[in-house]
Amino acid sequence: MKKIALTGIKPTGILHIGNYFGAIKPALELARDYDARYFIADYHALNTMKDPEEMASCIREVAAGWLAAGLDPEKVIFYRQSSIPEVFELTSMLMAFTSKGLMNRAHAYKAAVQENAERGDDPDAGVNMGLFTYPVLMAADIILFDSDVVPVGKDQVQHIEMAQDIAQAVNFNYKKEVLKVPRAAVQDEVAVVPGLDGRKMSKSYGNVIPLFAPEKELRKLVMRIVTNSQGVDEPKDPDASQIYQLYKLFAPAEEQAALAARYRAGGMGWGEAKEELFRAANRTLGPLRERFEAIMTDREKLDAVLEQGAEKARPIAAATVRRFRKAAGIDRK
Ligand code: ADP
Ligand code: TRP
Question: What is the pLDDT along the chain (333 residues), one digit of tens a residue?
Fold first, then answer.
């Protein structure tokens, strides 16, 4: 039997090419060898996103983005967290096995407390209980589906360790394996995609290239990439340029080598290097963009795909909750 891989995707903004190469593409590759369960973590987004229009459009765009990138809903169980009531039932049950001290140590919560301290504010200013208990909801997401591996970025590893701690506390109490203990699959080899200014591409830095930018905008953004002042004739170091780093994501090895040689030889200015990047990026992203636009225009179909995913997910979720309720003595049979 194949092992189970599960990951959650927070719908908190438009997808950019850092998300694509850092999270979406590797997760889709993993789905070839695992029984994959990928979901839109909309209740996680609710902690920070209170605008209903924004919430609704982010959910649709992120879901459509994954489908456009190649997620096959016949092979991957793809659903919204909010469609699975058992997630919240399991969260409540896990709360009883989670020490408050464990939550006090969560990085995101600690960072919020520290920022408050620096501002001289109350330590818990702006911290809602959703943020404080975030790791328990995430543990429920994972444990509910008997997940073996959870593909995540490094920043999420602590959350997976907490899910392990919580599942083990349950198993220890009932002296049997009621819940499967998951493990993180950190995608170390995935390089950090640089943004327009050379820092990590991130929504919070405002330096992103949206994955589905229309061709004109894509070109404009590529032309805005920050460069040094080397002239056309000067030889250039491809490895020191974010234009080339981005180019490598889109071009096959031979093309990469050929362009690197042109950088080193001199005679190619930054404008031309950007044209090459635009051409390669548009070649890859063009078909993705078309698929995305088609999916976005058929709202009912998108909703139906997510609902079908939820229908496949619910019996799995119900079985886990049933097992736990029985072990806990809440249900006798
Ligand atoms: P952002 O930093 O834009 O807010 P998120 O934190 O929502 O992005 O990231 C969602 C996923 O995309 C995570 O798995 C993260 O590791 C990956 N990711 C985001 N930005 C990059 C990047 N610049 N390079 C590689 N992976 C990235
Ligand atoms: N916390 C994750 C993030 O910020 C999203 C997430 C929610 C998740 N539930 C999950 C990831 C379960 C993996 C497994 O990216």
Answer: 899 999 999 998 889 999 999 999 999 999 999 999 999 999 999 999 999 999 999 999 999 999 999 999 999 999 999 999 999 999 999 999 999 999 999 999 999 999 999 999 999 999 999 999 999 999 999 999 999 999 998 889 999 999 999 999 999 999 999 999 999 998 776 778 999 999 999 999 999 999 999 999 999 999 999 999 999 999 999 999 999 999 999 999 999 999 999 999 999 999 999 999 999 999 999 999 999 999 999 999 999 999 999 999 999 999 999 999 999 999 987
**Ligand 2 in reach of 180 Cβ (< 6 A):** no
Atom 1 (ligand 1) nearest CA: 202
What pTM, to 2 d.p., does this model score? 0.94
| CA of residue 76 to ligand 2 center, whole Å | 17
Question: Could you tell me if the CB of 46 is within 6 A of ligand 2?
Answer: no
SS3 string, the chain, reads CCCEEEEEECCCCCCEHHHHHHHHHHHHHHCCCCEEEEEECHHHHHCCCCCHHHHHHHHHHHHHHHHHCCCCCCCCEEEEHHHCHHHHHHHHHHHCCCCHHHHHCCHHHHHHHHHHHHHCCCCCCCCCHHHHCHHHHHHHHHHHCCCCEEEECHHHHHHHHHHHHHHHHHHHHHCCCCCCCCEEEECCCCCCCECCCCCECCHHHCCCCECCCCHHHHHHHHHCCCCCCCCCCCCCCHHHCHHHHHHHHHCCHHHHHHHHHHHHHCCCCHHHHHHHHHHHHHHHHHHHHHHHHHHHHCHHHHHHHHHHHHHHHHHHHHHHHHHHHHHCCCCCC
Ligand nearest to the CA of 41: 2
